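Subgroup meeting minutes
Present: P.N., E.W., G.H.
Scribe: E.W.

1. P.N. recapped why we're keeping a running log of single-chain structure predictions: easier to compare across weeks, and new members can see raw inputs and outputs side by side.
2. G.H. added today's entry (134 aa).
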Amino acid sequence: MFSINPLTILLLLPLSLASPINPNLEGRQSATTCGSVAYTVKDTTNCRNAAYSYYGQGGTAGGSTYPHTYNNYEGFSFSVSGTYLEFPLVKNGAYSGGAPGADRCIINTSGVYAGAITHTGASGNNFVGCSGTS
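Output recorded in log:
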């Protein structure tokens, strides 16, 4: 028969409550909908990873200006602090140049995902929040 010492349980309990999740990784990632386009967690993760990789290398995607600073003129309440970067959000991969489309993921310069925004439904060159971004 197998027996567990109650003291062992008490000693191990704090370890089981500690969170091993790095907030810079996919913990903050979420699926989102921009206008009528639904993006998966994988799509937003691909966007974040590509933006942060280009930023870290000091480069841009395919001769574009992305990633570049996002000034948050619209006043979104992102859950992470910035300096923010914007990068085109696309389905099934990562933006690599050309026409960027209407949708963007926003990260900070530490590579933490902040949210998603879109030109769809906004006036002029402004943005509105995709689902989950306000």
